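Supplementary Methods, section 5.1.

A reviewer requested that the exact input to the structure prediction be made available. We therefore reproduce it here, unchanged from the version used in the analyses.
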Amino acid sequence: MTGASRGIGKAIAVHLARGGFDVAVTARTVADGEAREHSSTVQRSDTSPLPGSLASTAELIAAEGRRALTVPADLTERATVLAAADQVLAEWGGVDVLVNNGRYVGPGHMDRFVDTPLELLDHHLEANVMAPLALTQRLVPAMIERGGGVVVNLTSTAAFEDPPAPAGDGGWGLGYGISKAALHRVAGILALELGDRGIRAYNVQPGFIATERIAQDMAGFGFDASTGAPPDVVGAVVRWLVTDPQAALPNGRTLQAQEVCRHLALLPGWPA
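The structure derived from this sequence is encoded token-by-token as follows.
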């Protein structure tokens, strides 16, 4: 799964391990404390370390009694994404579940359109659309050979709703919206084309989640981490989706994670 060094991705990885899966995890940050560009705007740079890493997520997976395979990759560099997929295929032979969670993190996310260099929109599209497609195309044939599998794409309300305010004032930039909209169309088409070959595909819409990066970076752009749900909400829903026979939902469906988690009481203690 992608974007597994922190936040929603880390939570999904841990919950999949609790569900009995060995988990291959990928992200840019391999070890805690690494400096990576994570500013959302062209107006300034921010390479201060964010909490989390592939190494720390792997430790959490191991603590659940499952194997972790760390395969670093940068979603904006397709060669590294395909290399990560090939490493998983070489070492494990295939996967049962692919979770496309990671996305572009960097300038252009919270900039307005006229202020955003077009190459940053390319980064959004490469990381948020083409990288998931590359992974899906590489890994799904082995799923079919093994009798089937599940593709889970993390979508967003940005895919189908306008922001409540301009970027920087509580909304988001065009790159995020157009790339999430493109990814949102994938699950339904995969379900239509590959459902009879054992492939299930879903969108999972997290809602506003209080991740480490939201807490560290996003207050200045109008996002209050204290109002978000914990990442474990999404982790619990993805685990339910891929392990519980009762979750045999119509192929291609979009799930609202917070609604599903609340309705099925998947996370004890949430909501309070």
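The two ends are 29 Å apart (CA to CA). These observations are discussed further in the main text.
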